[in-house]
Amino acid sequence: MGDAEIAVYIGRWRPSSVSPQAAAFARDVIAKAGPEGRERAKNLLWAAGKLADYAIGLGLEAVPDVVLHPPTAERFTRSAPGLSGAARRTLRTNLRFIGRRVVPQLCPADMPLPRERAKAPYSPAQIDGYLVLADAQPTRERRMRAAGWSAWARAPG
């Protein structure tokens, strides 16, 4: 599906689940967000429409700087009734995507987390010390568990 077809789909979107004003807001911001694909556009339209309906119900002005402001979107995702945890996370992700595309001055990119180096592997001496401690356990079951044997494995001999 090309950009023109997606633009037509966005322009024709008229849901019964949100007010006409919220639907108009959603069409406007999703056209600016430039989604790739009809399914992505549909999901973003739904998220933006629901957020706009919520914001309008609170008496907020239906403009991107107000409705897509991060605290507004966050409050909505936390209080939206009837959504599972997974649906809330998806909704939040979609609203953050829209915000970064439409009002980037309000939604700076997340700071990258620092990478950590993997720890050095245990030396043979450290492994030997651990196995000596495992052998010192008072029962056979504890010795096997400490040495890394699972319940179904059996020691040779």
Summarize the helices and strands and which ones pair or pack.
Layout: H1 3-12, H2 20-33, H3 38-57, H4 64-67, H5 70-79, H6 85-102, H7 124-135, H8 140-146
Helix pairs in contact: 1-3, 2-3, 2-6, 3-6, 5-6, 7-8
Whole-angstrom Rg: 27 Å
The secondary-structure element order is HHHHHHHH
Content of β-strand: under 5%
Overall morphology? elongated
Counting DSSP H or I runs of 4 or more residues, the number of helices is: 8
Rounded mean pLDDT score = 87
* Major sheet size, sense and barrel closure: none
N-to-C terminal Cα separation, in Å?
67 Å
Task: Count the E strands.
Answer: 0
pLDDT below 50 for ≥5 consecutive residues: which ranges? none
Structural class: mainly alpha
Helix residue percentage: 55-70%
Task: Summarize the structure in short.
With 157 residues, this protein is mainly alpha-helical.
What do these coordinates show?
- By secondary structure, the protein is mostly helical.
- The protein has eight helices and no strands.
- Helix 1 runs parallel beside helix 3 (38-57) and helix 2 packs across helix 3.
